[in-house]
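Question (not urgent): is this output format expected?
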Amino acid sequence: MDMASQKLYRARRGAWVAGVAKGIANWSGIPVTLIRLLWILALLPGGVPGILPYIILWVLVPKEPRHATTA
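Got this back:
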């Protein structure tokens, strides 16, 4: 399924904190390990470049529906 037809959700399964990284991985097709590594690298220069976007996505992106299946 391409990204244009798939809605972005925070993942319920496979999530470490809030499901943001796993949700982006499911939506984009990028491996979740790479997404998590990018978040960690964004935290290194003081935290704000990584934590602020994560918190914003945590608040704005809805949790995936309970009946949804993830790959």
